[in-house]
Amino acid sequence: MGNQPAKQQERGEILLKVVPPLDRAYVRWLARDVERIHGFTPRNPRAVQPPEHYVEYMRFSGWLDVNLDDPDLAHLFK
Fold first, then answer.
1. How many angstroms separate the CA atoms of 76 and 68, rounded?
2. Close Cβ partners of 55 (under 8 Å, ≥ 6 residues apart)
3. Could you tell me which Pfam families the record lists for this protein (predicted)?
4. Which residues have CB under 8 Å from 64's CB, separation 6+?
5. Which tens digits make up the pLDDT trace of 5-63?
6. What is the pLDDT of residue 2?
7. What is the DSSP string of 35-76?
8. What is the C-alpha to C-alpha distance for residues 78 and 69, in angstroms, rounded to an integer?
9. How do the domains of the chain map onto residue ranges?
10. Is 70 exposed, middle or buried (0-12, 13-18, 19+ CB in 10 A)?
11. CA–CA separation, 18 and 62 (whole Å)
Protein backbone atom coordinates (compact mmCIF):
# COMPACT_ATOMS: atom_id res chain seq x y z
CA MET A 1 0.00 0.00 0.00
CA GLY A 2 1.46 3.40 0.87
CA ASN A 3 2.81 5.26 -2.13
CA GLN A 4 3.45 2.17 -4.22
CA PRO A 5 1.13 1.70 -7.19
CA ALA A 6 -1.12 -1.31 -7.07
CA LYS A 7 -0.18 -4.20 -9.33
CA GLN A 8 -2.10 -4.32 -12.57
CA GLN A 9 -4.08 -7.50 -12.82
CA GLU A 10 -3.94 -9.03 -16.26
CA ARG A 11 -7.36 -9.91 -17.59
CA GLY A 12 -8.01 -12.54 -20.20
CA GLU A 13 -10.76 -10.48 -21.85
CA ILE A 14 -10.57 -9.19 -25.41
CA LEU A 15 -12.96 -6.37 -26.31
CA LEU A 16 -14.16 -6.12 -29.91
CA LYS A 17 -15.92 -3.27 -31.59
CA VAL A 18 -18.39 -4.81 -33.99
CA VAL A 19 -19.89 -2.79 -36.82
CA PRO A 20 -23.04 -4.09 -38.45
CA PRO A 21 -22.80 -4.74 -42.20
CA LEU A 22 -23.68 -1.70 -44.31
CA ASP A 23 -25.54 -1.68 -47.60
CA ARG A 24 -23.12 -0.68 -50.38
CA ALA A 25 -25.75 1.32 -52.25
CA TYR A 26 -26.53 3.28 -49.08
CA VAL A 27 -22.83 3.98 -48.45
CA ARG A 28 -22.37 5.21 -52.04
CA TRP A 29 -25.46 7.42 -51.77
CA LEU A 30 -24.29 8.81 -48.41
CA ALA A 31 -20.77 9.56 -49.71
CA ARG A 32 -22.20 11.32 -52.77
CA ASP A 33 -24.64 13.30 -50.63
CA VAL A 34 -21.93 14.44 -48.21
CA GLU A 35 -19.67 15.44 -51.12
CA ARG A 36 -22.53 17.39 -52.70
CA ILE A 37 -23.28 19.25 -49.45
CA HIS A 38 -19.67 20.17 -48.66
CA GLY A 39 -18.80 21.12 -52.24
CA PHE A 40 -21.90 23.29 -52.74
CA THR A 41 -21.44 26.85 -53.97
CA PRO A 42 -24.45 28.88 -55.09
CA ARG A 43 -24.40 29.91 -58.77
CA ASN A 44 -25.99 33.35 -58.42
CA PRO A 45 -25.57 34.43 -54.80
CA ARG A 46 -27.81 37.31 -53.84
CA ALA A 47 -26.44 40.35 -52.04
CA VAL A 48 -27.42 40.38 -48.40
CA GLN A 49 -29.10 43.53 -47.14
CA PRO A 50 -27.96 44.29 -43.59
CA PRO A 51 -30.53 45.39 -41.00
CA GLU A 52 -31.32 49.10 -40.85
CA HIS A 53 -29.73 49.62 -37.43
CA TYR A 54 -26.43 48.25 -38.81
CA VAL A 55 -26.59 50.66 -41.74
CA GLU A 56 -27.38 53.55 -39.40
CA TYR A 57 -24.46 52.65 -37.10
CA MET A 58 -22.07 52.38 -40.05
CA ARG A 59 -23.28 55.72 -41.41
CA PHE A 60 -22.69 57.42 -38.04
CA SER A 61 -19.23 55.85 -37.79
CA GLY A 62 -18.28 57.05 -41.27
CA TRP A 63 -17.81 53.56 -42.66
CA LEU A 64 -20.19 54.09 -45.57
CA ASP A 65 -18.37 57.16 -46.91
CA VAL A 66 -16.30 55.77 -49.80
CA ASN A 67 -14.47 57.99 -52.25
CA LEU A 68 -14.58 56.22 -55.60
CA ASP A 69 -11.67 58.35 -56.87
CA ASP A 70 -9.35 57.09 -54.12
CA PRO A 71 -6.20 55.65 -55.80
CA ASP A 72 -5.96 52.94 -53.13
CA LEU A 73 -9.41 51.65 -54.13
CA ALA A 74 -9.04 52.12 -57.90
CA HIS A 75 -8.02 48.49 -58.51
CA LEU A 76 -11.33 47.33 -56.96
CA PHE A 77 -13.48 49.27 -59.43
CA LYS A 78 -11.75 48.29 -62.73
1. 10
2. 64
3. AtTam9
4. 55, 58
5. 777 777 777 777 777 788 888 888 888 888 888 887 778 878 777 788 888 888 888 88
6. 66
7. HHHHT---SSPPPPPPPHHHHHHHHHHTTT---TT-TTTGGG
8. 12
9. 49-73
10. exposed
11. 62
CB 77 within 8 A of CB 67: no
pLDDT of residue 41: 75
Q: How many CB atoms lie within 10 A of CB 13?
A: 5
Which amino acid, one-letter code, is at 12? G
Distance CA 65, CA 58 (A): 9
